[in-house]
């Protein structure tokens, strides 16, 4: 039976499933090797079979947000499409796939070739991930002519304004800060202050996810983190995994012992702990102030305001009122509140400001792709390219339908 496969091809993880699924399956977009099992490669979620997750070596398809390692990506796709989803008979299936914003034409052409000529999908729809998010948001808010998608993912943060489902190209902005940079910076700080963890990307990514939050008052929290004893309400201990009894670490309140007693306690319980104070909020703060680590770019609130300022003036109130935030970094506690408060300070007083973080930000684009694939009637500019059309017209048709027709211009008939 023919079905539509939806593949949100992220740099950190693939979100994949058929359009009728309620939610996608998350699979790491990488091949990993372990120090304990050096001769074995773990593709995607095969990593769950690895006994020792310390010191993992990653082979990534994406570098700086672009797909450059095709051998690795093909192995992950072969595994995902052939095993993780179903025993796929591609000839009878359609594919909805995401790509980065402003993807290179050469990468787009190679994706067309692989999906049509090698996997032989019957049809293909390939759009930037924020376009699927925009479609899902506007399905839920049909009266909204515009929306602004903030996609803060693994490699970059993109701000993309939309008018009636099309990208307003002049307003697209990119911040060179994503989840990968935050994890790497956390590794550097902890390695300098406490314990060498530069080779522990997997573990430190968990530390970031479990312990970090977005501060609403950065200077106040910084003062609190310097205090001693019970006055320091920010200090936490992170119990590191030992991969025997614990595969994932855990965050806890400080046990309240002196340094010597704490060391004895850890030895008795066979625990290795990190003490986390200002690291908990200074890492996500980079999303709001990249200049803190020498990246001379705007933070997310300023980039939102700048993006909107570059669009036609009649769109401005609609864009401020319909800001949707997706991607893994939106999971930080306090993220939505901070973005809303700072954008509100910048926006004109007579404009309403509304920031929406969906219940599952990392899978929102996938849900948009699934909704689009399942829609009974699609707008003409969202029609996929069929295998027969590709064989007749080649890459030029894909470029027109997936690139040029997705960009709004003042003369667009919408």
From TrEMBL:
Record flagged with keyword Nucleotide-binding: no
GO cellular component, one term: nucleus
Gene3D superfamilies registered for this protein in UniProt: 3.30.420.40, Actin, Chain A, domain 2, Actin, Chain A, domain 4
Main location: cytoplasm
Taxonomy of the source species: Eukaryota, Metazoa, Porifera, Demospongiae, Heteroscleromorpha
Cellular compartments annotated: Cytoplasm, Cytoskeleton; Nucleus
Organism of provenance: Geodia barretti
Keyword terms of this UniProt record: Cytoplasm, Cytoskeleton, Nucleus
Protein name as annotated: Actin-related protein 6
A Pfam family: Actin
Annotated family: Belongs to the actin family. ARP6 subfamily.
Highest taxon in the source lineage: Eukaryota
Residue segments, region Disordered: 249-268
């Amino acid at each position: 039976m023919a079905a539509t496969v939806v593949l949100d091809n992220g740099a950190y993880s693939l979100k994949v499933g058929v359009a009728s699924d309620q939610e996608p399956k998350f699979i790491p977009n990488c091949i990993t090797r372990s120090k304990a099992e050096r001769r074995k490669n773990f593709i995607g979620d095969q990593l769950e079979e690895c006994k020792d997750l310390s010191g993992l070596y990653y082979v990534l398809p994406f570098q700086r947000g672009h797909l450059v390692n095709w051998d690795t990506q093909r192995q992950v796709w072969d595994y995902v499409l052939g095993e993780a989803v179903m025993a796929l008979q591609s000839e009878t299936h359609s594919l909805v796939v995401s790509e980065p914003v402003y993807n290179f034409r050469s990468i787009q052409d190679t994706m067309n070739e692989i999906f049509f000529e090698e996997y032989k999908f019957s049809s293909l729809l390939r759009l930037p991930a924020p376009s699927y998010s925009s479609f899902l948001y506007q399905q839920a808010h049909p009266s909204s002519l515009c929306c602004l998608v903030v996609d803060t993912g693994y490699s970059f943060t993109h701000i993309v304004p939309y008018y009636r489902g099309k990208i307003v190209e002049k307003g697209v902005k990119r911040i060179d800060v994503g989840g990968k940079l935050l994890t790497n910076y956390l590794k550097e700080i902890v390695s300098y202050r406490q314990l060498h963890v530069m080779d522990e990307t997997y573990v430190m990514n968990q530390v970031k996810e479990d312990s970090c939050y977005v501060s609403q008052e950065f200077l106040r929290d910084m003062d609190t983190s310097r205090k001693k004893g019970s006055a320091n309400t920010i200090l936490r201990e992170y119990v590191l995994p030992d991969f025997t009894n614990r595969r994932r670490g855990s965050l806890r309140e400080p046990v309240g012992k002196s340094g010597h007693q704490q060391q004895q306690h850890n030895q008795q319980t066979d625990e290795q702990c990190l003490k986390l104070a200002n690291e908990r909020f200074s890492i996500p703060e980079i999303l709001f102030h990249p200049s803190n680590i020498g990246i001379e770019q705007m933070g997310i609130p300023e980039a939102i305001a700048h993006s909107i300022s570059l669009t036609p003036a009649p769109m401005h109130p609609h864009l401020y009122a319909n800001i949707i935030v997706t991607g893994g970094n939106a999971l930080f506690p306090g993220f939505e509140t901070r973005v809303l408060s700072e954008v509100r300070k910048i926006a004109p007083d007579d404009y309403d400001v509304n920031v929406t973080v969906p219940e599952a930000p990392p899978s929102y684009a996938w849900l948009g792709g699934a909704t689009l694939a399942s829609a009974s009637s699609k707008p003409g500019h969202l029609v996929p390219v069929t295998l027969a059309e590709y064989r007749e017209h080649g890459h030029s048709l894909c470029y027109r339908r997936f690139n040029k027709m997705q960009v709004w211009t003042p003369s667009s008939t919408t």
